[in-house]
Amino acid sequence: MTSTETERSVPKPQFTDAEAGAKEFPDSGPSARRYNYYKPAKRKQTHYEDVTVEVQPDPRHYLSQGWIYGFADGSSGYPLTWTKLKAWGVDNPEPERGPGSGGKPVQDWPAHGWHEFRDPNEEWDLTIFRNNANVERQITANVENARNAKAFDQWNPNWVRFVERHVSTWMHIEHIFGLYVFAACNRSGPTNMHNTAMAVNSAHKIRFAQDIALYNLTLSEEIEGFDGTAHVDAWNNDPEWQGVRKVCEALTAIEDDWAETIFATNIVFEPLLGELFRSNLVQQAAPGNGDYVTPTVMGAGEYDYSQRDLRWSQACFGLLTQDKEFADHNKALMQGWLSKWVPQCLEAARQMQPLWSQPDNKPPRFEDSLDRAKNRFAGILGDLGLDVPKELSQ
Amino acid sequence: MSRQSLAKAHQKIQELSWEPQYHEPYMKYGTDYTFKKAAKKDPLKQVLRSYFPMEEEKDSRVYGASDGAIRGNMFRQVQERWLEWQKLFLSIIPLPEISAARSMPMLFQAVPNPELHNGQAIQMIDEVRHSTIQQNLKRLYMNNYIDPAGFNNTLRNFHSDYCGTIGRQFAEGFITGDAITAASIYLTIVAETAFTNTLFVAMPGEAAANGDYLLPTVFHSVQSDESRHISNGYATLLMALSDEDNRQLLERDLRYAWWNNHRVVDAAIGTFIEYGTKDRRKDRESYAEMWRRWIYDDYYRAYLLPLEKYGLVIPHDLIEESWNQIWNKGYVHEVAQFFATGWVANYWRIDGMTDEDFEWFEYKYPGWYDRYGKWWENYNRLSRPNGHHAIVAEDVDYVYPHRCWTCMVPCLVREDMVVDKVDGQWRTYCHEACRWTDAVAFRPTYEGRDTPNMGKLVGHREWETLYHGWNWADVIQDMGFVRDDGKTLTAQPHLDLDPKKMWTLDHMRRMPHVASPNVILNEMSDSEREAFVADYNAQGPAGRPAGATS
Question: Is the ipTM of this complex over 0.90?
Answer without folding.
Answer: yes
